[in-house]
Specification:
single chain; mainly beta; three-stranded antiparallel beta sheet
Length: 121
Amino acid sequence: MIQKGDRVILLKDITYTESFNEDEDKTHSSLKGDTARVLLVDKKKKKLIVEGVNIRKKAIRPSQDNPRGGWISKEMPVDASNVMLYSQELGHGVRTKVVVEQGKKKRVDKKTGTEIPFPNA
């Protein structure tokens, strides 16, 4: 159960392109094993937007706010199966389950049984 504000570790080799010009060589960077913060969760589509991961260039039409138009870098969704909740105390990714104690939900690591707090976001 990953929520907005959680730290996650990337399980799959997700690459992003830093350069969009056709003249320049496109540089790719591997992010597998890195940790990042979750910005948005879409539970229906099982997608996450993770900070600094899966960045794509998007064309913007000219408007009153931006009269020249141009390109912006935007973080695109990543499938939830490609990330795992990261525990800073344990220093690695963890599988979790939700336990209800005294009417309150707690996230617990399946392997060790240690509680993983919900984010303050």
